Amino acid sequence: MARYRFGTSEFRQCGVGAVTNDDWRSRKKAATRRSLREHALRLFAENGYDNTTVEDIAAAAGVSHMTFFRYFPRKENVVQTREYDPMIEELIVDRPPHESPLAAIGAALSTSMAAILPTDRHRILTRVRLMMSTPQLRALQLIAMDETRDLFVRSLARRNGQAQGDFVLAVHARVAVAVFVAALEAWAQTDHGDLVAIVESAFSAAETATASQPPDPMFSRTIRSPRSAPVAEPRRRSMG
Questions:
Q1: Pick the CATH number of 80-210 from 3.40.30.10, 1.10.10.10, 2.30.30.210, 1.10.357.10
Q2: Is residue 190 packed enough to be buried (19+ CB in 10 Å), middle (13-18) or exposed (0-12)?
Q3: Cβ contacts of residue 92 below 8 Å, gap of 6+?
Q4: pLDDT digits (tens, 9 = 90+) for 88-121
Q5: Is 50 exceeded by the pLDDT of residue 233?
Q6: Contact indicator for 55, 113 with CB cutoff of 8 Å
Q7: Does CATH place domain 1-77 in 3.40.50.2000?
Q8: What is the β-pairing status of strands 9-13 and 2-6?
């Protein structure tokens, strides 16, 4: 039984074979990375991002500051994580084929959040609030949005059997990112909000906004340029 961790949640797959030294090292590295990230988020929430140093984070995790830099190149990188991407991708790929791209992504996100939040709610909420409120993290937020867009494009391409460079898939993915970010920002402004319900409501609103509508007759009329008035010819003076 192979075991993969997403935060403190687990996703398991059946497998065979004994645990090797490489497995043990990988688990130890994953545990150290997770410990550094959890202590960093706690210290950021308690003391503020600017008032927390790398040395503070390393000391709280029981490692040296050089160990910190083996896992994260800079302090701001400790806030980033893509640990839930494999779960989300598989959930999107497995959605029923009759669903629209937005509906498939929204349902996959709702399912993944329902699985993750019972154990990782505080961690995710702290991270979202930090990204929203810390100017130094704005650039990372843009990078994270691009990575999420790429995740959605890749997942939709696998689901539909299309090329990842398809323009329509890219448009659907960008819309889905905007909807998801709006849901996260709304959730972060509450203390007891239901993220799953907010995500579902946001994607439902987006589906309604992008649904096919009957053409508006006002816009279906041909717009014609006004006919210019005829120019009067100058009167000729008689020669007589």
A1: 1.10.357.10
A2: exposed
A3: 104, 105, 108, 152, 155, 156, 159
A4: 999 999 999 999 999 999 999 999 999 999 999 9
A5: yes
A6: no
A7: no
A8: antiparallel
